[in-house]
Amino acid sequence: MGKRVTNIGFTKEYLINYFWDFYKKNKRYLTQTDLKSRKLELSATPFNRHWGTYTNFLKEMNVLGDNGWYICEEKYLQENYSNKPKDEIINSLMKKRNWQTVTQKANSMGLKRDKVIIYGENPFNKEDIEELFWKFYEENKRYPEAKEIDKLHGNRFLVSRNKYFGNWNSLLKEIGVISLDNTDGWYICDENVLIEKYETNPQDEIINELMVKRSWGTIKTKASELGLRRNTSITKRQYTNDYLINCLLELANDLGRTPRDNDIREIENFPSMKVYQKRFGSWNSALKIAGLRLNTEFNITKEEIINRAKDFFKTNNRSPYWNELNLSRTVYEKYWCNFPEMLEEAMLPLNKKTRIDHFKTDEELIEDYLNLYKILGRIPMANDVNNYANMASFSTYKLRLGGYEEIWKKCNIDNTEILDETTYGFICLDKNGEICKSYAEMVI
């Protein structure tokens, strides 16, 4: 992966060529998700600089139609919606969409499906369907999902099972996989696991033995319906080491970074920090075993910090920013007044962003933020600030001015579109009055 570039000085011609080169190489269009993923050398900033939004750019390239659909997808539906199988249509679209979304789009275009689709083979009978179900179970040691077996045997199987059983749950009830009075889709074998093991066995053992993987909260609800209760005197702290490490890895994958104490406090039934400290000696030891980066290192020496900064300079041909050495500001302040003094002692040059962070006054920070607010036409978020070349980093804003709300207050910015703040970002109200789960979703 090449070095990520956030400079906004690219020409329109360069960006257009980049877009079409990406299309030739990947057989699909470059998306905003690609630009945000940090796997490419470009961010969305240069496109926004020239076209206002990435959507405007796509429209100018004549690839984007109505309601987020590509023109090539609309053309494909026009030619194939009436007679092609559903799975073939879905897999042929540039962007993966569910069948309901495809149908709604086709209806808006005035398209209809042919009432008669010939599959070229005779339908399965009832015995064939049951035999194929149990064959899948023998080969995979679990029951199939409807979409799996339908995909395996095609539309002919789907039409046949609907003819004999009406729906998937009716089939499962008739062959004895779920009970006749079942309304929640739990398999009989999974209910039996809870009856046998819920009272005394560890959580991870129960979760792993179920045919369908479920969260512990869902399992607790089902157990309560079955009249089961945990014997806490037996089950307390019966986590295995593997289970604890897997919990860390799954959470890190969801967050996109190393978990912190406040992350795990907010998740119901997640093992506490004390569990990790008691089992592995310390939180950092658990992170190391999981192969995750440590959030910070408090006992690092002055010489180790300087050597780490010099190694970074040799590798990247520039001085590091304070947060690129995986250390908190408090660690630097143990030995120096600020980060630039560390660079000076290491005989490394101040880079542009570090100079801006260090020398700009609070009034200049506020003025820069307001200018960016006018350029974007919306409230700037951390990524906007960090990607704008002549501004201090957002970490400097937080350190000097406070969090988002303090910054908005000092800049006299109306933030009524922000409804609430969660662990994952802001819940916002867009211009149409629709609630968005994140600020990024509102911007889109």
- Please give the radius of gyration in angstroms: 28 Å
The portion of residues forming beta strands comes to: under 5%
Question: Level of helix content?
Answer: 55-70%
Largest sheet: 3 strands, antiparallel
Number of strands: 3
What would the principal axes of the Cα set say about the shape? flat
Terminal residue distance: 27 Å
Instruction: Assign the structural class, choosing from mainly alpha, mainly beta, alpha/beta, alpha+beta, or little secondary structure.
Output: mainly alpha
Oligomer: single chain
Number of helices: 27
Unreliable sequence segments: 115-120, 419-424
- Overall mean pLDDT stands at 79
Output the strand order for the largest sheet: 1-2-3
Strand/helix succession: HHHHHHHHHHHHHHHHHHHHHHHHHHEEEH
